[in-house]
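This section describes the prediction task in plain terms. A model, or a person checking by hand, is given the sequence of a single protein chain and must write out its three-dimensional structure as a string of tokens. No templates, partner chains or ligands are provided. The sample shown here is typical of the held-out split.
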Amino acid sequence: MANRLTQIATRTGDDGTTGLGDGSRVPKDHLRVMAMGDVDELNSSIGVLLAEPLPDDVRTLLVVIQHELFNLGGELSIPGFTLLKDDAVLRLDEALAHYNAALPRLAEFILPAGTRSAALAHVSRTIARRAERAVVHLALQEPVNEAPRQYLNRLSDLLFVLARVLNRANLDGLGGDDVYWRSERLARAQDQD
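The expected answer:
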């Protein structure tokens, strides 16, 4: 990549533009900048999740994910550049399989609730979905590698699964299980039993 930041307040963005990693300038509402911002917000939300008590293996995985998200943002900041590797997507697939294998099947939709860490994982999941939509939108206008879109898609799934794992870990004593949506269909089925 080009230059490392040595000064934060450059005032070069006062005109409503921002610099990309290749030195070009684009409007701050450019699709590429929007996607980069959503990825940055996702990384920040995972940073908040990391401030919570977590199982050691989940913490280790989330730290790796933060570094990979930084790579993804770097890739988005330089049109035509590849920084996120295919093995990052594979790592998420493996984590999904590992954590999902220990969870019971879902009986109904679940609410983004339970322990604080689980709720924060759900917030990160929704930001990951938005970041994915931003990358898909960008890819309709400009060439974008497949790995960023795939990575964000898998990450949102993984964050859903991790929320369920964190509810069961119950490290704050407020969880223990999924918080199920109380649908009319489920209520009728329970009344018939």
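For orientation: The chain has six helices and two strands.
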